[in-house]
Amino acid sequence: xxxxxxxxxxxxxxxxxxxxxxxxxxxxxxxxxxxxxxxxxxxxxxxxxxxxxxxxxxxxxxxxxxxxxxxxxxxxxxxxxxxxxxxxxxxxxxxxxxxxxxxxxxxxxxxxxxxxxxxxxxxxxxxxxxxxxxxxxxxxxxxxxxxxxxxxxxxxxxxxxxxxxxxxxxxxxxxxxxxxxxxxxxxxxxxxxxxxxxxxxxxxxxxxxxxxxxxxxxxxxxxxxxxxxxxxxxxxxxxxxxxxxxxxxxxxxxxxxxxxxxxxxxxxx
Length: 269
Hints:
Helices cover 51% and strands 17% of the residues. With 269 residues, it is α+β, with helices and mostly antiparallel strands. α3 runs antiparallel to α4 (130-147), α8 (181-187) packs across α9 (192-203) and α10 (207-225) crosses α12 (242-253).
């Protein structure tokens, strides 16, 4: 069953909305009332008032406390939606990447308010077309881009822009199948040069170095599990020879695989 893109709630004063794990970023529209927002990894709180909106990224748990009876419309934004709008989102990336890592509110203008009013009618009318609500999400993107300054949108969408969520998800989903940087770039539909540039901005290191680290982590797990022989691990990770595999472990993990395996056995005794 597909997750709803749009939800509408009227919560009483004092109600708590908490989320520990969620798959997609969410945009909260405060139609009436006011809320106190707090990320669970910080003590800082933010008050959001009527006719304001804010975004919550998918890698932070959070809590929202209703300061009065409040009407909230919540938009769950699927990752593929950001990918589809990648071109205009990337246009918002500031040259100096100097955007504060905190919640940024935007005031709902008259057009967005009317848009949300109609949307609420569709939600409450039990309109069941998933495709229709996907189109309404696209409409929201167009309205944001048209009615708000790019500098404001850059801060509102900061976690999507600076962390390049979709790009990172594509990389992490494909790197195990890629033999080298060129193959990884191709798998995520980038030229090698464009991929390296974007990768450095997202991960703060070269893709080759990052891929070597990830490979080393996987190999370390395999050795410590002790299920496969060292030769089987070397073959599985396509090393040209056992010696090459041994050198890789020494450089990336600090010791040859035989030493790592022996140390692990000693610890288990």
